[in-house]
Amino acid sequence: xxxxxxxxxxxxxxxxxxxxxxxxxxxxxxxxxxxxxxxxxxxxxxxxxxxxxxxxxxxxxxxxxxxxxxxxxxxxxxxxxxxxxxxxxxxxxxxx
Length: 96
Fold this sequence. Notes:
Helix content: over 70%
Shape: elongated
Oligomer: single chain
Order of helices and strands: HHH
Largest sheet: none
Number of strands: 0
Structural class: mainly alpha
């Protein structure tokens, strides 16, 4: 199927460095979602373990891992926000 001129223009606008930056930001966003999913999953496991009367060692290990992921998420958010602002500008709601 042939591409319309609008589609070709849109593809052309996302070529070169801009496309690579967009792809990298997309990959980083996907990774952040994975981290957030793990953080939530560990939270549910902690709740279940507490209700089931899990051992303090098990709870401590899960809590430590969840805290580690939380720290990684915060650092990741700050890094991606700085990268996004440096490459494509501040978010629309921050430009007021």
